[in-house]
Design a protein that fits this description.
Layout (H helix, E strand, L loop, with lengths): L10 E3 L2 E3 L3 E3 L15 H12 L4 E8 L11 E2 L3 H16 L3 E7 L30 E2 L12 E2 L2 H20 L4 E6 L4 H6 L14 H18 L6 E6 L10 H13 L4 E5 L17 H11 L3 E3 L6 H9 L6 E3 L1 H5 L3 H4 L17 H14 L6 E6 L5 E6 L19 E6 L3
Parallel strand pairs: 3-4, 3-13, 4-5, 4-6, 6-9, 7-8, 9-10, 10-11, 11-12
Antiparallel strand pairs: 1-2, 14-15, 14-16
Helix pairs in contact: 1-2, 2-11, 3-5, 5-6, 6-7
The structure holds flavin mononucleotide.
């Protein structure tokens, strides 16, 4: 029997407390500037949903390397400049009281296409001759009208694993409190998982054990690269909605293996592997799959897909079918969807958390430290206007859990920081 909960009950994953159960699903904006950098558009897009009361903002699919983007306008996290630019997002989201997370992805055969509002949109190939690149896939089977991909060699597979790990470390530097591995919606990891897109005969093809290998390697490398006190999520597909494709019976062993690797939550989706197999319509179409995967793996789950009205959000959580819900298009229509779900009798108004409470001060401080690339061991102190110490702590990483020796922090009000060498 699963536990009933309510939308505004906090949930803790590792050391991160997410203030409520209404979360923003990742939605690619195809609006990055230059080399995968977030822009003002992203700040407003994510900032407004954070202000609108969602507990977790899951930033869109963000490529782990240039050739892993779906379009030239995808966000990226493969270098320090990008990590620095993402800090503007994480710092604002934290300050608004939400938890910033980012989805990491390789597009695989769904790579190098036009932006949705250009030409043929996501079905329009951008070949190398006009500035695109050749997609990488488990097998040379194109997706619809997109370019024929090249079959991944063993060294390509190793590069994918290493790229996910590098991006996870950069996501931490950027101030993200959680990362999600994208293993759904027909992107590279899903392409390896499904026998419809994976015709390999080596150790990455054939049996389910082989087809799961890449996803498990990636999940393990991300878990190892991301701090132990922050959660790792995986977006898994429960079914391909296609004959001979993945079914929930195949998703169960994957969910169990992910649990064994230390993954903290499954984001449960389905479909989008092939252009010809659209998912059925219907409210909450992945909720029952989420329940099955939770029962089998013991992991918390957050289903996504057509959970677009308040009564359904409340029902899913009250029935104990899920630990949180991910909302996509309803949040595009209404950034304040989460606030509207609150008891209408309560007067709730969005505002910055800075200086409001000890906890909010802590969140702002950590993001300030990360934004300023403070080294591990840096001590922060926050004092109220009366000079009283509100909070003192130190910045640690996976490798620096020992408390540094204390350093006196002077001054009245605001934030002070000093670096203590151990
Ligand atoms: C504009 C748009 C962009 C999307 N981009 C992503 C993405 O970057 N990563 C992903 O996993 N899903 C993406 N999705 C799928 C959503 O996260 C979500 O799974 C889907 O919209 C179903 O949920 P909904 O019915 O609440 O919208 C996108 C959906 C939309 C509408």
């Amino acid at each position: 029997m699963l536990n009933a909960t309510s939308a505004f009950e906090p949930i803790r994953l590792r050391d991160i407390t997410i203030p409520n159960r209404i979360w923003m699903s990742p939605m690619c904006q195809y609006s990055a500037s230059g080399d995968g950098l977030p822009t003002d558009w992203h700040l407003v897009h994510y900032g407004s949903r954070a202000v609108g009361g969602v507990g977790l903002v899951l930033v869109e699919s963000t490529a782990v390397g240039p050739r892993h983007r779906s379009t030239a306008a995808d966000l990226g996290l493969w270098n320090k400049e990008q990590a620095g630019a993402h800090r503007r997002l994480t710092s604002f989201i934290l300050d608004a009281g939400a938890v910033p997370a980012v989805q990491l992805q390789c597009a695989g055969r769904k790579s190098s296409h036009q932006r949705p509002w250009e030409g043929k949109g996501q079905n329009g190939a951008v070949p190398p001759a006009v500035g695109g690149w050749t997609p990488l896939a488990p097998s040379a089977i194109p997706f619809g009208d997109l370019s024929e991909p090249c079959e991944a060699m063993p060294e390509d597979i190793d590069e994918v694993v290493a790229a996910f790990a590098r991006s996870a470390a950069l996501a931490h530097e950027a101030g993200y409190q959680a990362v999600e591995v994208h293993a759904g919606h027909g992107y590279l990891l899903h392409q390896f998982l499904s026998p419809l897109s994976n015709h390999r005969t080596d150790e990455y093809g054939g049996s389910l054990e082989n087809r799961m290998r890449l996803t498990l390697r990636v999940a393990q490398s991300v878990r190892e690269a991301f701090p132990a006190d922050k959660p790792v999520l995986v977006r898994v597909t429960a079914t391909d909605w296609a004959p001979e494709g993945i079914t929930v019976e195949e998703a169960v062993p994957l969910a169990k293996e992910l649990a064994a690797l230390g993954v903290d939550l499954l984001d449960v989706t389905s479909g989008a592997l092939q252009p010809a197999s659209p998912p059925p319509t219907g409210d909450g179409l992945n909720v029952a799959f989420g329940r099955t995967l939770r029962e089998a793996s013991g992991l918390p789950v957050a289903p996504v897909g057509r959970i677009s009205h308040h009564a359904l959000v409340d029902d899913v959580l009250a029935r104990g079918d899920a630990d949180a819900v991910l909302i996509g298009r309803a949040l595009l229509r209404d950034p304040y969807f989460a606030l509207r779900n609150r008891d209408a009798g309560k007067s709730v108004w969005p505002r910055s958390t800075t200086g409001r409470s000890r906890k909010a001060a802590a969140a702002s401080c950590w993001s300030w430290l990360l934004a300023n690339s403070a080294p591990p061991g840096t001590i922060i102190a926050v004092k109220g206007a009366d000079g009283k110490l509100l909070l003192q702590g130190w910045l640690r990483t996976r490798r620096s859990h020992r408390r540094p020796r204390p350093v006196p922090v002077r001054g009245r009000g605001g934030l002070a920081a000093a670096t203590a060498r151990r």
